[in-house]
Amino acid sequence: MTNTAEAPKTNDASSALSRGKEKKHFQVIEKTYRNNVDSDYTEKIEALGKSYNYSSNSDYYWGDPELSTLHGTPLYEEASPSQKRALNHLYWIGQYHYTAASEINTILYNQVTSGVFANVGGYETLCKELDFETSQERYHINAFQKIGYKTKLALLGKESLGNPLYKKLNKPSGRSFLDRFNPQKQLKQIASLKASSSWESLQESTLRSLTKMMFRDKADYYSHYLEQKGTQTIPTTAGGLAGNMASPSVLKFLTLNWGSSPFLAAQYYSARMIANMYLKNREYRYYKHFKDLEKNGEFIPAPIAISYYHMLDESFHTTMSQTISQDVYKDFPKPTVYEKLLANVIIYVTQRGVLGGLPGGLPAVFRDDASFMPSYYRSLTSPLFGMSSQEALHWMEKCLCQEHEGFHVNLKYHQILLSDLRRFFDRLDYLWPINREMRIMAAGGSIERAIQRNVAAFKQFASSVA
Q1: How open is the CA angle 384-390-394, to the nearest 5 degrees?
Q2: Secondary structure class of 13 (helix, strand, coil)
Q3: What global pTM score does this model have?
Q4: Domain residues for 67?
Q5: Alpha-carbon distance 449 to 459, whole Å?
Q6: Residue 9: inside a domain, yes or no?
Q7: b or e along 399-413 (b: 16 or more beta carbons within 10 Å of the residue's beta carbon)?
Q8: Does 176 map to a domain?
Q9: Region 296-303 average pLDDT
Q10: What is the CA radius of gyration of the chain?
Q11: Which of 358, 361, 362 is nearest to 443 (CA)?
Q12: pLDDT at residue 162 above 60?
C-alpha cells in the first residue's frame, strides 16, 4: 500500500522548540510509523475480504464459542449446533460492523487533529502516521462490510439488509395515491425542510462563533483540514464510539474544538484509546484462536484471519493513541479551565454512552441490552430460528430478564477492560476522579442493575411490536 501523505506545513517557532526536545515519544512515533509502513497486514485484510464467501467458512466457529450472540442464555442452551455456529458468526459481524463505524470516526478525526499538529510544527512524522492510518482504515472498513453483507444475507435473508424491523412499519398506510402526492402537503414539507436547513445553518454559525471565541488566542493552530472545508457543513460522523457518545450537533461542536487547540487535539486520542482498548478486549481472543489453529495445522476461517491481521494493524494505532494522549499533550501549554472542563465532559459522556451497561446477550460489550433488542428480535424471527413474534418475545424475556451464565461471562470481560482503562487513565493528570477511576463504567458492572434495566426496557419493546 502506497503512502500518499502530504508533507504538513509547519510553524517555525514552535517547530524549532519541538525539535530542540528529543523526547522519548518522538522516537516512539518515528519507530511506529516506520514499522506500520513496512507491514503488510492491511494488504492481507484486503485480499481476504475480496475472496470471502460464506459457504467456505460456515461450518467453523469464528473464535471462542463464548464470543457468540446470546451465549450462556437459556436460548443458547436449546439451540442446535448449526444455530450456535450461526450465533457465533452473527456476533463477529455485529462487532465488526461497530468497529467499521468507529473507524469511520477515526478517518474524520485523524484528519481534523493532524491539521492542528501540522500547524504546531515539529510533528511531521506524527502527521504522516495519522494520514497513513486513515488510508488503512478504508481497507478495514471495506473488508468488514463485505463479510457482514454476505453473512447476513446467508443467515438472515434479504429482510435483514436494512428493511424496517416491525411489520406494522411495512403495512400500507391506507392513503391514496392522490393523498400521498397532494401539492399542498408537498409545499408544506418543502417549507419545513427549508426551515430545518435554516436552523441547522444558524446552529452551525453559533457553534463556530462560540469555538472561535474560546480559542481566540489559538487561531494559528486551527486545523488546516477544517480550514479547507471553509463554510461548508461542519463534518461529523454517526455510529461507532462517537455515535454512542453524543448527538450529531454535539459531535459537530467537538469537531471544531478538537480542530482548534493542540491540547484538545491530543485529548481526542484518550477517547480514541477507549475504542482501541474496547476492541482489543475481545480481538485478543481471536488473535489467540488464530495462533492455536495455525499451530495445529487446522483450517483458519477468513474472518478469524482478518481479526488476527486487524489486531496487528491496530497495534500501531493503539501505540499512537497512547503516545499522543499520555505524552504528546504535555508538550503543549497546560489546558485552560475551559479545555480541562471539555476534556473531562468528553470522557464522562463516553463512559456513559459506551461503557455504562452490562448486556446479557453480547459478551465483551458494555451498553444496555435495550440497544440490541431489535437485532435479537430480528434474528429470532428470521429463517435462522423461524419464531413467531410471540415466541421471540418469550425467549427474549427469558434471556434478558433473569440471571444466567451469559451475564457472568460478560462481567469477566468487563472487569478486564475496567482494570486496563483505569491503568491507562491514571496517567492523565487533568482528569476528574470520576473519569480517572472509570466510576461510571464500574457502576455499570452489576448484574442485578442490568436485569432491572432490562425488565423495564423489555416491557417497552414488547409493547412496540405487539
Answers
A1: 85
A2: helix
A3: 0.88
A4: 24-166+184-465
A5: 16
A6: no
A7: bbbeebebbebbbeb
A8: no
A9: 98
A10: 24
A11: 358
A12: no
